[in-house]
Amino acid sequence: MSKAVQALAICSFLTTLILLFMTSSTDLILKPNIDRIYKATLLISDVDSELWRNYKLGLDTAAKEYNVDMAVKTLFDLREDDQQQMDQILTEIEFGAEGLILSTSYFSKMVSLIEEENFDNSIVFTKVNRSFCDKLEEKCSYICYNYYNAGRLLGEFLLETHQERQTIFIVAEREVNENYEFFVNALQETHNVNILPNATQETEGSGQVKMLLDHDDIVVGLDENSLLHFRDIDGVVLYGLGYTNTLIDCVVQGDVAGFVCFNEYMAGYLSVQNLVTMLDGGTIQECVEIPYKLITKETMFENETFLFPIY
Amino acid sequence: MRKYIERLLDQMYNHKHISTVILLSFTVTATVSLALFSVTYYNRFSKQVESFQEEENINAITQIEGHFTQQLRGVMQAFDALYYMILYEKPIDEIEFDLLYLSMKNDIQSISLFDKKGVVQLTAPTMKQNENIDVLQQEWFLSAVSEVQNKQFSKPHIQNIFVNTGTSYEWVVSLSQSVNFQKDGVEHEGVLVIDIKYVALEDYLTKIGFKENGIIYLMDLEGNLIYHPDIQLIACGILDFSEETYEGYQKVTRSVPFVGWNIVGVIEQDPLDLDVIKDNIFFVYLLFLFFAVMLIINLLISVKIAQPIVLMQDAVKNIASGDFDTKIPADDGFLEIVNLKKSIEKMKQHIEKLMADSISKQEELRKQELDVLQSQINPHFLYNTLDIIVWLIEKKDFQNASSVVTALGRFFRISLSRGKKVISVRDELEHVQNYLDIQMVRYKNKFTYRMDIAESVLEYQTIKLILQPLVENAIYHAMEFMHGDGEIVITAKEEEDYILFSIEDNGMGIDPEMIALIESGQVVPSPRGSGIGTINVLSRVQMMYGMEYGLFFDSQLEEGTIVHVKIPKVKGVEES
Question: pTM for this structure?
Fold first, then answer.
């Protein structure tokens, strides 16, 4: 063996020995798995609403599991001003949010604005109408609610339950936003629909609305307040979209016949899970469709884990 | 196989340095041993650790089950206390649940007593029954009624029998049993129920469960999940829970007494955490380190063993090349090496003695050969010279006769030199001069001669009678066949390392082939004599002084010949 080969062999051996020592006995090569803390912000329309309760439970469970420092900010006062919403998003990014979970009533406009800004940050849109998913930007993730199918489910149930095709009064606290339009459209396929926006406002008009309703008329409330507004009218059958404990109480007591709801806990959990996957550079399912159910008094406690997450 | 191994060993060992062979043998043996030891020990150690770990896991689950049972037993004892109080001691108007509820309110959601129609009789805390919920259809009520003798634990469910008073819908596990109670002096059948907070169970199990690399969960006998850290995710379908979920995990099941639940622990059997990986790499590092240390030790041992042999080999090589002054090393060390050294020393001395004898004998032989050669001087010269003297006396040329006699006397005086073989250059040249003087008379001055001698060479020593045969050749072989006057020039000069004599004639010259024969030491037949004169001189010079000395010819046909005699510069001692 030549001296050069001998020297090479000795050097290789020593290098291997040093590398093995450094790998096994120091943190220089194999670094300890220090959990990364992800910084993210959830921007929703109403942080105090009971409607978000289960969503936030799912969100918190996932945030704890995935080590996410999650801030929750409300867009309540800004819900009709897209530019201000965008300013708030930019502010969150400026304060270090690596990822955002967004829920907005005016989703289409928001998507356009975000496309214009061309963010590098990971964004998960939540509670997005499933029908929008086909034309969405690829780099975002979307937790989708299929409002159209939910409307179909309610419509078919109403046909089955109430035998004949009736006029459905759709009531809402404010204007019907673009998500609910799909829900309403689906109901229109099975019923005559009478849309009554701003139904909770004590105006002459709203008084007349109540007067319009007859026994066995079906009222579908797009929000809790508008639905409960009609609770005291005898014989009117009330259905809701989404749920709170108050609404559940109403169903238990028979004041409300039922409601269509989405698995809010799952939506919250998957929002964070997808965000973390995006932040880690992983592959995500861009459009995740959240399951929905029609809950009545009879089926309520068959679906306990759907309505009342065990956390 | 055996032949293959033998061939392999031959290839490994043949014509290799002994240190390499020792190092290779030791290292291979030690490495194989180390590898076998490491693999065996690692396997054994791993199995022991695995077995120990499994045992530890079983103990841990047993311990968890014990703690959990203890916790449930507290609730069950409270339940029993209430049960017997209702059954034997007091009518329900006199019973209050509040004290017990307050003492256990961290763990329980409510305590209630229902009659057989599902109407609440007592409750703590005070709550209004939800009239829209049919208690008789509740699972906990049905199971209590169907098995009146036993306490029944329900599956986790939402407590919905009371009107929600801001406490929201809580998950509970109901502990219920049929009980007869006294009210208004009448005995009634009913059901006592304690709703245990699910979150309390969860907290407790989280607290006593595994912190990492394992989880515990609870199942009832039908396989329904009672508790699982991810129960909600499983319910949503985000996580899968089936027989395959924990495949490859160690699964330990313990039944919780009196409850009808199983507590299941699943533990990762071979968690690939960083510490385990680092431990394995450290093990490999230790093997490399041991190998390195072993290699160094083997190297030192092989050098220690091989070095005396290598030194001895060098010494023997020197001896073999004739250097008998070389000392053989290894005065101490391995016994075999010391013995070998002694044997070689003896052998060396023996060879030295043999060689000395051989040299002595050869020297003797050489002397004898010289004597023989010197004795081969032509005897005819004496007869011829005596004839010349007689002839001169008859011619009454007494002066020349006297000169010849004188020259002859000097000639023989130097020839004999009292038996010496080495004489001074001065005497050798005088001897030649005497010879030439005699031959001048004989050949009636048909040639002349001249001597050109450097003064510095005169005191050097030479073997005697090396020039006279060459001069004789010059006269006989050159002058006799020449027409006209011949001339012989004898020169002697000192060179840097040797003395050079030259005998030059202007005779017929010598054929180059003849010169080649003479220089190669072959006897050249001569019509005038024995033909051995030149060979005689050449042999004697080379025998005496070595092969680098001798005769050299420079001859041109029809022009003449120069014969050079080269001898070493030897001073002082005349006889060696």
Answer: 0.66
